[in-house]
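Structure in, sequence out. Go:
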């Protein structure tokens, strides 16, 4: 797997050997929290790049997923779910959504087929854009044909020119329709990235996210939303990768819950995250974790940029 931290273009190297009619473009995946944006991007790329949970607002960054063929390259951006920000971290999250939309050649809007109605935030974005737009109604593995058809009709009524497709990201159903739409609508342009590169994020980023995913899976209430993860060291040795990670919470009481009785909770989180990392990196991983309190880190701009949310 080629993760890469810097593109050849940024390094000043031309990407050569591509056909003259090569097509390439950026696709912004947007929608309300929990509709399946990350699941969908992972399915489109064929790699688990974005973490997923049944809780809302799991994704906090713009995460790139790149897929290339002989004469095309699609650069997807998975983004945080659309919300009205209530604190600084959420402001930063919405900033990432806006950046993805600013760069986009195409908008891939996602809505939850299990929920009736037209999502107002998504409607605003789609209505006001002149880009090619595809709306996917996701999770149709769980909805009835009638529910899907009603939802389609509601959107078609709201925006008659909208392209709509019903899919299941989880079951990988109807995804060819998405790929076909994208390849057809991206402009003729040289590739933005080397053809074997699948993302922009670093190995450290993925390691931190895999820990955060287990925090979302294991802990309830406000704790997942009050936790951020930093990788203090990442050493790739011939035998194994040694990773030292810091889980940062906002309060002492949260730290106690994160540690659990005799450290059982954090141990469980670390073990599960390590197994995920070993799968992802294809190598043995030694992971050590520490829990630290940084009061109100998610509400203070200065602290946020230190934790990787500079906007
Ligand atoms: N049944 C069903 N569940 C799905 C499907 N796609 C995603 N899910 C589930 O929906 C939940 C949310 O999925 P995510 O991919 O994290 O959603 P998201 O839109 O990225 O959420 P945020 O990052 O919080 O905005 C998870 O429990 C997924 O397993 C689908 O096609 N069918
Ligand atoms: Mg997500």
């Amino acid at each position: 797997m080629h993760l890469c931290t810097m593109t050849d273009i940024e390094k000043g190297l031309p990407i050569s050997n591509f056909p003259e009619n090569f097509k390439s473009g950026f696709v912004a995946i947007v929608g309300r929290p929990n509709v399946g944006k990350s699941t969908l991007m992972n399915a489109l790329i064929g790699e688990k790049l974005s973490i997923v949970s049944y809780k809302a607002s799991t994704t906090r960054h713009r995460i790139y997923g790149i897929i290339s063929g002989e004469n095309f390259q699609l650069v997807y951006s998975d983004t945080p779910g659309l919300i009205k920000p209530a604190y600084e971290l959420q402001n930063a999250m919405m900033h990432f959504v806006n950046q993805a939309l600013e760069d986009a050649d195409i908008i891939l809007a996602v809505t939850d087929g299990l929920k009736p109605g037209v999502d107002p935030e998504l409607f605003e974005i789609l209505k006001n854009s002149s880009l090619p737009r595809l709306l996917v109604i996701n999770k149709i593995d769980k909805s009835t044909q009638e529910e899907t058809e009603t939802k389609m009709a509601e959107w078609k009524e709201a925006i008659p020119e909208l392209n709509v497709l019903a899919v299941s990201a989880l079951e990988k159903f109807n995804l060819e329709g998405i790929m076909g739409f994208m390849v057809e609508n991206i402009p003729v342009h040289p590739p933005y990235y080397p053809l074997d590169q699948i993302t922009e994020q670093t190995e450290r980023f993925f390691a931190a996210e895999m820990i955060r995913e287990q925090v979302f899976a294991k802990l309830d209430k406000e704790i997942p939303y009050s936790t951020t993860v930093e990788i203090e060291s990442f050493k790739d040795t011939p035998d194994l990768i040694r990773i030292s990670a810091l889980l940062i919470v906002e309060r002492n009481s949260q730290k106690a819950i994160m540690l659990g009785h005799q450290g059982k909770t954090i141990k469980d989180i670390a073990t599960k995250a390590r197994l995920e990392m070993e799968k992802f990196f294809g190598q043995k991983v030694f992971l050590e974790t520490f829990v630290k309190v940084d009061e109100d880190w998610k509400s203070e701009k200065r602290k946020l940029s230190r934790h990787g949310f500079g906007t």
